[in-house]
Amino acid sequence: MSCEGHSHDHEHAEADDTSTALGTSLRPSIEFSSVTCLNESTPGSGKSILKLYEERFTSDPSLTSQDDPDEDPELLLTIPFNEAVAIKSISVLSYADAPIFQPHRNTAAPRTLKVFVNRQNLDFETARDLEPTAAITLVSPLHQWDTNHSGGTIDYPLRPAGRFQNVTEIALYFCDNYAMPDGFGASNDLDDYDGDRVPTEITYIGLKGKGTNVKRKAVEAIYETTGMTKDHKVPGAEYFGREGV
Questions:
Q1: Which of 39, 77, 225, 239 is the most exposed place for a label (fewest CB within 10 A)?
Q2: From CA 182, how far away is CA 175, in angstroms rounded?
Q3: CB 12 within 8 A of CB 198
Q4: Which residue has the higher pLDDT, 178 or 150?
């Protein structure tokens, strides 16, 4: 579905769109036991929003940053895969600020997403300073939930495509939200913002692309404590021994 009236680089997927030009779901390739999220308010809630496509519009469970008015509403979700994948697009959905919820939730939808590929052991300090593989300004809740687009999700293409080939791990850094004035968060210093921080809330993340069937496997090595003579014979040694050579 095309989208007019704004400059965001995204496409609106239809309500039953499980396979599009932007790829098929990569959820079967996710190593769920190794998914981590920094600053989540509820342990394990990061992996809980990597929902099945047919559950994408459920409001619970959701991922919310720590509720502290003095702390930044950041989230850093790291998603490893059990095979190398090519990622074509990402979908992010938040029910924060959605008009269907009354009373209003005291949370806000994420504004800026920084994507990092194959960067292990990433933390907030590194993510703030490191050049991302891609940076995306997510659409505002007013656009996400308007009457023309509320029947589907939004797919953000990941470009350039060459940067998202042979991916074994992706980190998603949500550094600000729509409760903050434009210009704070992202690469800017949040210490300059004096207002209370409202927690960031996300209800669904989906990744589309293609698997490579190249599985990640641990290297198995066998070490011997004492070498056995019979295991290290040199061809012809027995013959030379008999001849006294």
A1: 225
A2: 12
A3: no
A4: 178
